[in-house]
Each structure stands twice: as C-alpha cells, then as structure tokens.
C-alpha cells in the first residue's frame, strides 16, 4: 500500500493553461502543492495524476487528497 497524507485543509485555486500537462500530487508529500515535485518516490507515495484542460480556466485543486474527483476538490476536506 502506497503512502498518502493530507497536505492541506482547503483546495488551492490554480490558473490552468489549455493543453498543458500538469501533474497533480496525489500523495501529499510534495512541497509544491497541489503539484507533484517528485517526493512520492522517496516517500513511497502514490503516483501523481497527469491531466490537462481543453480551455484555460481557474480550478480548485485538492490538497487534502481525499477527493473522489482528482485533481479537483469535491468538498471531501470538510468531512
Ligand atoms: S510528490 Fe506527491 S505525487 Fe509526486
């Protein structure tokens, strides 16, 4: 079982560019939240989620790592 930890108590609003690949940190060990900085390798954490958006937009990306809709916040941090 890979490690996951909570990296924050609220999502981070991010300006996403169209057609750019992003790596959302799913393990919570990155110090560059909400994005992966490679720390999952040394912490035996879960792998990042690679995603992109078709149109530039602002999105609230999950930091609690409990979301059921990664990389987006689904309100799970309030549970
Ligand atoms: S550092 Fe968390 S997924 Fe890479």
UniProtKB/TrEMBL annotation:
Q: Which UniProt keywords apply?
A: 2Fe-2S, Iron, Iron-sulfur, Metal-binding
Q: Record's superkingdom?
A: Bacteria
Provide the GO MF annotations for this entry. 2 iron, 2 sulfur cluster binding; metal ion binding
- Gene Ontology CC: one annotated term: cytoplasm
User: Start and end of every Iron-binding zinc finger CDGSH type domain?
Assistant: 9-46, 48-79
> Keyword Iron-sulfur: yes or no?
yes
Task: Check the record and name the PANTHER family matching this protein.
Answer: CDGSH IRON SULFUR DOMAIN PROTEIN HOMOLOG, CDGSH IRON-SULFUR DOMAIN-CONTAINING PROTEIN 3, MITOCHONDRIAL
User: What's the protein name?
Assistant: Iron-binding zinc finger CDGSH type
What is the organism field in this record? Aquimarina spongiae
């Amino acid at each position: 079982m890979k490690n996951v930890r909570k990296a924050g108590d609220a999502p981070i609003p991010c300006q996403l560019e169209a057609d750019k690949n992003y790596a959302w940190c799913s393990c919570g060990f990155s110090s560059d939240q909400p994005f992966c900085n490679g720390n999952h390798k040394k912490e035996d954490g879960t792998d990042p989620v690679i995603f992109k958006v078709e149109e530039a937009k602002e999105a609230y990306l999950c930091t609690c790592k409990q979301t059921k809709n990664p990389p987006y916040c689904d309100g799970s941090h309030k549970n």
